[in-house]
Amino acid sequence: MSSQSAADVPVDRLSKSPAQDGSPVPPTEKANHRWWVLAVIAVAQLMVVLDATVVNIALPSAQKALDFSDGNRQWIVTAYSLSFGSLLLLGGRLADLVGRKIVFQIGVIGFAAASALAGAAQNFEVLVTGRALQGLFGALLAPAALSLLNTTFTDAKERAKAFGIYGAIAGAGGGVGLLLGGVLTEHLSWRWTLYVNLIFAVIAFIGGMVFLRKGAPGNRPKLDLPGTALVTVGLFFVVYGFSNAEKHHWGSPMTWGFLVVGAALVAAFSWWQTRAEHPLLPLRVLLDRNRGASFTVLAVSGAGMFGVFLFLTYYLQQSLSYTPVKTGLGFLPMIGALMVAAQLATNSLLPKLGPRPIVPLGMLMAAAGMAWLTVLDLNSTYAANILPPLLVIGFGLGLVIPAAMSVATERVGEEDAGVASAAVNTMQQVGGSIGTALLNTLAASAATSYLAHHTGKMAVPNAALHSYSTAYWWSAALLAFGGVLSLLMYRGGRPAPSEQGAATAVHM
Fold first, then answer.
1. From CA 250, how far away is CA 242, in angstroms rounded?
2. What is the pTM of this model?
3. Nearest to 402, CA basis, from 458, 351, 456
4. Which end of the chain has the smaller Cβ count within 10 Å, N or C?
């Protein structure tokens, strides 16, 4: 039996007969098998994405149980984002070099073990360690999952459907995390916001064993160790610097110092990639115009999207006294609108129109929805005042995220699929970190300024409303800026057909 599996053979060799008449023969891999692969990938991706928000609602309960300070509270979130954001490119390249199935499975097992460790934590140090390990294994899992999707679905129509589903999960995962976190915290325990990952992990691991094909790249170039060190430390410093902006002011060396050094290291990494024999992130991945536009859009949308999840959650719980479960339920219509738009964008609009008209429209719709949220006050009702802008935001993001993800990984060579997928996740993670720091700082400054000029019993709740409104306006500005950028950066017209051999070898 040949050592070369069907997964290693380019699609054009699988789908055409070598006979002289050129008559097609049935593919060796059934279409429904590919959809099972998508299901496995979707479960794993949901586990990683929702973990960024599912713990947020549980934080007050965890803080009370483990008795750690308000100053330390941010590290429950930051420990995850630091390790996840800084190690994504390494995880993506390991998937290319070692094999995507094995990296995917290691990521699933490690993420589950880290979740169990964090859930069983009896002190702050163990909880932070568990969260950091979750980020580490998430950095292996996320790019491997997306690159598996990219190399499994090569037919244009199937690819559109697959990326529509995947993009909807990526965009809606934060809202699902808020709902799930509320239910688990309110009815079980904050620990179950971490233990629930074991259920997802078991499903993903068994599904991976059954449906993902074995195989490793035939040509394994050496890992770019200098590039790995530069980008890992550089991204760590960038994310850490923005995270410090929540606790320290922007003029503090703990903020700008880390940002400057991090930016310098990332710049040095970019220079090194032009000279390395086996670059960690080949510039051919970044220099395609549409792909570069998609990376930019994902970063900006990640920064702007943060406003709706964090500040609307505070508004619903603190200003309108919603329970955690009711707060999570309030986001469901937004998630539904996002999923509908995701399918429409990837299945119908993107193949016919290309990304240039779709992504800017979605960004501007999301920006309009954010601006609409600024009118909320203490007497607002859900149906009349909150639901309409949420539907607009959800539909807009549904046009943006799946389309940008699909274009960002389209026509990428099989040997670069993992690192290109990692770059997608990195853009979202860094964008989200920037959004977290920027919007939190602006909102806190707005509240402080309001209280300095207003007194009385309503000063505090009105200051909170003013801070939320400030965050919504800045989120709207970021999304509108992204809309203009995407209009200028994307090429017009339909997506070009894949180049011969590009992204066609299914290597799992």
1. 9
2. 0.73
3. 351
4. N
